[in-house]
Amino acid sequence: MGTASSPLEVVQAVYAAFGSGNIPGILDLLAEDVDWTFRGARGLAYTGTFRGRSAVEKWFGSVVQADDIQAFEPREFLAGGEHVTVLGWERTRALPDGKVFETDWVHVFTVRGGRVARFWGMYDTQAAAAARS
Question: Which of 8, 57, 84, 108 is the most buried (most CB within 10 A)?
């Protein structure tokens, strides 16, 4: 991955790794005790708060089991101090029934010492829930 120094560079490296399916590359960019929270449709395994790299690794596994992400676009990076907020969009097929939903999303990262210390994300929970009803 190379050395990413600024919070923006670290976050961009996270998305580059995600885009190529490199989950170990993402985990390498996280603090050992990372605090990872995602607000999504109620009842999904990836909705909630997860602490530590191993929990985040399981979180990514939960995402893959629940969602077939067809398009994923980080569109705007807003950096300030140790925080980076990313505005994006995705098109996803809910598994296993195959309904497709589109949603805007917001991801907020806190980067300390060149690693992601905190992640907080959310998307349109109504769109995701409707795709599973």
Answer: 84
Biggest CA–CA distance in the chain, Å, is 44
Q: Indicate the Cα dihedral angle 43, 110, 105, 45, nearest 10°.
A: -20
Indicate the SS3 state at residue 98. Answer: coil
pTM: 0.92
Tell me the mean pLDDT in the region 83-101.
Answer: 94
Predicted confidence (pLDDT) at residue 55 exceeds the cutoff of 60: yes
CA distances (Å), origin 8, targets 34, 71, 79, 82: 17, 22, 6, 9
Q: Is 1 a domain residue?
A: no
State yes or no: pLDDT of 29 exceeds 60.
Answer: yes
Mean pLDDT of 23-39: 97
CATH of the domain at 110: 3.10.450.50
